[in-house]
Amino acid sequence: MSAPLVIVGDSLLDVDVEGTADRLCPDAPVPVVEGQAEHHRPGGAGLAALLAARDGTPVTLVTAVGDDPSGRCLEDLLSPTVEIVRLPLRGTTVRKTRVRARGQTLVRIDTGDGRAMGRPGQVASASAFARAADALASAGAVLVADYGRGVADLLRELLRGLDVPVVWDPHPRGSLPVPGCALVTPSEAEARGMCGEPYVSPERTARRLVRDLDAEAVAITLGERGAMLARRGGRFGPVPAPHVAVGEDACGAGDRFAAAAALALADGASTEDAVARAVGEATRFVADGGAAALRLPRPAAEAPVPFPPGASAFEVAAAVRASGGRLIATGGCFDLLHAGHVSLLRRARALGDALVVCVNSDDSIRRLKGPSRPLVSERDRVEVLRALGCVDAVTVFGEDTPSQVIERLCPDVWVKGGDYDERSMPEAEAVRRAGGEVVILPTVPGYSTTGLIAAARAAS
Length: 460
Hints:
This is D-glycero-beta-D-manno-heptose 1-phosphate adenylyltransferase. The chain has helices at 45-54, 69-78, 126-137, 151-154, 156-159, 188-194, 202-213, 253-266, 271-287, 313-322, 339-349, 362-369, 378-386, 403-409, 428-433, 449-459, and strands at 5-9, 11-24, 31-44, 59-64, 83-87, 89-90, 95-101, 104-111, 115-116, 141-145, 166-169, 183-184, 217-221, 227-231, 236-239, 327-332, 354-360, 393-397, 413-417, 437-441. By secondary structure, the protein is an alpha/beta fold. It has two domains: 5-293, UDP-N-acetylmuramoyl-L-alanine:D-glutamate ligase; 313-459, HUPs (Rossmann fold), CATH 3.40.50.620. Helix 1 crosses helix 8. The longest helix is centred in the middle third of the chain and has 17 residues, at 271-287. The radius of gyration is 25 Å and the shape is elongated.
């Protein structure tokens, strides 16, 4: 699609506090979460906008954002990939904080009371509403992500009668969709609340909502069961998931579904094809870890993470976690450091706030590569790596794989070169257990330690 997808709705800041919980608090039967790291991402309409933009689509987000720390963080996270039309907000930006341990959410804390404010005719908000009207007029499709914080209500008249597909993702606290929506996407629980009769089945409820909402179609999302689609004229049927999503965190799946459906409709897909595509994308999203797996770079405006002079790898990791930053780690022998290594390390460091390099010990290399290796001693390899400006700390491991040191460091991202793949990487499971993700970066062609050794021997 050449015209942008315009997303209208309420944005909030999602924060995941990650750690481990191995003991109970002595004064209450609650777990003690240790080793905390904070990960920030957009929520609500902001998450839908981010996910759509990651598909390579131009996205305009019409939302209300507060001038407070959470609002500024939210804007910093979105602005690199999303065009924001900012409406005024009364109160503070909503922030939802989940405290998690080993992939399980223990408690969620909601703060902020912000609601969209202003009216199209008011002087103070006239320019913002004019920009919102211009955005809607140029849209290829519109997604309304209504989280009940007032944005959809303020723009309701502008949303009526648009000549592009309108997908409405409702919320129990929000208002009913405008008549004529191309698709309404409630969850099963939301559909129960919207239906004016006792809940019987997804089929009957979807057909009832098509009539009551005067919508072209309603797709009730059913989690791992896919969706139930009903269209104007009485046609209905299930849309099964392509496979069962094994992920434990479904947070954000509804936003992924609605954004994928809107993009498909904008591309000219039929309603059935759009819903099938949305079911597939939402299923993959959950299988890949859901919203909790999203790791966004810290906003550039934030101060760098301070490290004590000569800090060890584990001190650097603790400092990054304490500041809510993103820890990157990688590992290898780094025998005869070459330009390919340096390129990989520089690109890895750009993914976060600190880079820790895990280096095989001399004994480990001999077991892996034979008695003639390494060519460069452990001490010298560490010194050369520490001298690189992109490396924040180095640690040595004596095992055949870095799994044990990964479980101590708990990196957000484990980086390896493109000559590896995650399935054949023995430490990948340790990365996942520690709450991180594996990123494979392309290698620089023509560089390898084995090739350098062979060239040197041939020259001699």
